[in-house]
Amino acid sequence: MAVETMTLEVAQATAVGFKAIGAGLAVGLAGMGTGLAQLGIGGAAVGATAENKDMFGLALLFTVIPETVVIFGLVVALLLLF
Amino acid sequence: MFEPQTMSKLLIAASKDQLEAVVRELYRHNLFHIEDFVESDPKGLEGCKIGMPLPGASESSSDLVRIRSIENTYGVSSKSMDADETKISTSAVKKRIDSELLTIEKDASALSCEKISLENMIRDYETRITELKPFTVFPTNLADLKGFDNFVVFAGLVSVPVSLGVPNEMFIGAYEKSNLLIAVVSRADAAVAERELLEAGFQPIPIPDGNETAGYLTIDYTKKITELKTKLEDVSERIITQSKNNAAFLVACDELLTAEVERAQAPLRFATTQETFVAEGWVPADTVAQLMADLQKVTGDKIFISEVEFDPVEEAVPVEYHNPDFSKPTEMLMDIYARPKYKEFDPTILVSIVFPIFFGFIVGDVGYGIIILALSLYLRKFIKEGAGKELLVVLRNASVSSIIFGLIYSEALGFALPWSPIGINRHLNIGSHASGAAPDAVLMLVLTAWIGILHITLGRALHMYNAHRMMKPDRHRSKVIFGQFGWILVLWGILLVLWSMFAMPLMPDFSGFPAILAGFNAVGIAGAVLLLVGIIGIGQDSLLELMELPTVISHVLSYTRLAAVGLSSVAIAMVTNFIAIELIIEPQMASLSVVGVILILIGVVVFLIGHTLNLALGVLGGALHSIRLHYVEFFTKFYTGGGKKYEPFGKLRKFTEE
To answer: DSSP secondary-structure letter at B413?
Structure first.
């Protein structure tokens, strides 16, 4: 059985592997969340900017608000890896 | 510094015979922001009417329209032209308008007509060729299909050949993925034949005119198109020559006539009575004396000018930035968000210093820095005016900052420089160059959180300063100020609690003190008290604001993007190097062969593409994240903006002089 053959090295390597998977999930899922959030905002922002160029600053501001989510994911990933 | 240009409100009144002289002088100075006179405004001047345009307005306008149309034909625009060393005098321009404009206009319109008619003819032939295309499989003269009295000809496309139930003469030829069908039936059977054809999926197409076979006609039309295109090229060349000959004169005319039209229309914005006019407007305070003196000189002292008192907060005072030269380009970034209000704290200087630092902190690579620097300097040759030029200057400053950070991080295109990183190590363990030491990710995260804490505290403090300056000294103002102070207390209270519980790098460690109450030590209790007082402070200003409490943490953590985005950019650069050099190029270099040389070339391409993409990502990411931290995390703490842009009446002459 796997449990009986698991030496310390194997356990450590597995732990590193799980950390890497966790880091990947953190960035990937957070990225999807950000993408979904920016989908609607971005579409509306482009529309508003096309109607009125002065909206650009505000539109950009609204669009980048959900970006924080993926940054949190990235930070968690970095903390996991290092 | 830190606030917009101080403005003065001027009221100018004089008799109407001075109108033209005054308008001319105001236009020349390019300082007076006219406050439009509104007849129905109850607070405005009583019994006054909007003025009439100066004489000559309609002639100048119609000349201007003619000039603009010629400029359009020749593709001349004053924006794309550099000012000449020698400017043309206005009298010379006027003389030339009288003597030459008609000829130039005739030439231009003749050329433009010729060009349009040639283009139309080409388009016409091209349409005919498209129409002929299906009939190229039909080998007989097209004229034979027309002009019958007793027969009807059907022509069109069908997917599969059909046979009709009525007597007919039929041609079927394969055309592309379909078939060209031409059927001749007697007029009596036409209705039956048509129904049968339509049931078979027949799509009728018109039979083109022409007394030849379709193939012959196509060749003939193609030949004609080639001839027309040669003629068109000739016309385009003549247009370019004409445009070169006349460009300088045209932009000078444009400038002169625009000025005349704008001057002539100025009285429409003034208040007038039977004999006098009154103009209200804004000028920068330090130019008032000069402007007054000059106006008095041109009118021979027959003018009344006075500085009017105004409420700097209530009135919509036009706003002009007042910044040192190095901060001027950053005003573009401010305008994208909003121009500050008059009397509001103007953060342009802060942005102009902090933005490049953030950008450099993220990109932090000597190689990328030098490429961005070169790009921003090179592109200035093409972008000479407006926001684009300012953006390039901002980018230049940012690139210098990333070179400096690159020297600190010891990075150039993802390679290590011959010294160890100073303070912060961003080198990842990728490939054989791995040093073994992991990057200081945690150190960077804490450092960037510190940047966030200080930046946000500064933002809140600036809100207190703004409230102090812009609001009336009453209870409401004290509430706002204490509310903002509450936010600062909450932030630092949370920090104290954290410090009392955990030991973190780069942060003070108070976790060693003995616990006094409920597991908290003295520092923790102090932090909790600050937190509580802060929450009360925020709540007394606005209860709804309490909902925003989590942003204290999320906004500070948002600054960790400076570390995270930077590290990901380093990772891409190092992985590119690893793939291109260690995986592709180096093994081939060991034993060269023909295939090896090709692989090395592929490796070089991978290297170039990888770094180009990463550079684009770095510039976009570096700029967008840095400016976002300003717009979202920093400005929302204190900055409202929405000031009216200062647009002085007049124009600086570029091509003409008096």
So the answer is: T
Shortest Cα distance, chain B CAs vs residue A4, angstroms: 32
The SS3 assignment for B324 reads: coil
Question: Could you give the 3-state DSSP secondary structure of residue B202?
Answer: coil
Pairing of strands B151-158, B88-89: unpaired
Q: What is the pLDDT of residue B248?
A: 82
d(CA B93, CA B249): 7
CB B355 within 8 A of CB B402: no
* pLDDT reading at A3 higher than 60: no
First CA to last CA distance, chain A: 32
Distance from C-alpha of B524 to C-alpha of A7, rounded to nearest angstrom: 43
Please name the helix (run of DSSP H) or strand (run of DSSP E) that holds residue A19, with its range, or none. helix A8-51
- Sequence-ordered list of residues with C-beta below 8 angstroms from that of B394, at least 6 positions apart, any chain: B329, B330, B332, B333, B352, B355, B356
Amino acid identity at B96? R
Question: What pLDDT was estimated at residue B243?
Answer: 85
Q: Is A29 on the interface with B (CB under 8 A)?
A: no
The mean pLDDT of B502-530, rounded to a whole number, is 83
* Model pLDDT, residue B84: 65
Q: Which of B243, B115, B130 is nearest to B176 (CA)?
A: B130
- Is the CB of residue A33 less than 8 Å from the CB of residue A70? yes
Mean pLDDT within B73-93: 76
**Rounded Cα distance, B448 and B362, in Å:** 11
**Which pair of structure tokens corresponds to residue B534?**
């802060």
Q: Is the pLDDT confidence value at B434 over 70?
A: no
**3-class secondary-structure state, position B399:** helix
Compute the Cα dihedral for B642, B643, B649, B654 and give only its sign.
negative
Q: Which pLDDT score, from 0 to 100, does residue B259 have? A: 87
If contacts are CB pairs under 8 Å, which of residues 51-70 in chain A contact chain B?
56-58, 60-61, 64-65, 67-68
Hey, of A70, A75, A80, which one would you mutate to test binding to chain B, going by the most B CBs within 10 A of its CB? A75
CB contact under 8 A, B441 and A82: yes
Cβ-defined contact of B336 to A57 (cutoff 8 Å) = yes
B217 phi, psi to nearest 5 deg? -60, -40
- Which of B237, B200, B252 has its CA nearest to residue B76? B252
Contact B632 A74 (CB under 8 A): no
Amino acid identity for residue B499 in this structure:
W
Category of B208 on φ-ψ map: left (φ > 0), alpha (ψ -120 to 50) or beta: beta
Which of these, B75, B482, B449, lies nearest to B251 by C-alpha position?
Answer: B75
Q: What's the complex ipTM? A: 0.77
Confidence of residue B85 (pLDDT cuts 50, 70, 90): low
> What is the DSSP-derived secondary structure letter of residue B162?
-
Query: In this structure, which amino acid lies at residue B99?
Result: S
- Pairing type for strands B318-319 and B644-645 reads parallel
β-sheet bridge partners, residue B169? B184
- Find all residues with CB under 8 Å of A56, minimum gap 6, and list them: A49, B336
Beta partners for residue B304, in sequence order: B13
Bridge partners of B20? none
Tell me the average pLDDT across A46-71: 83
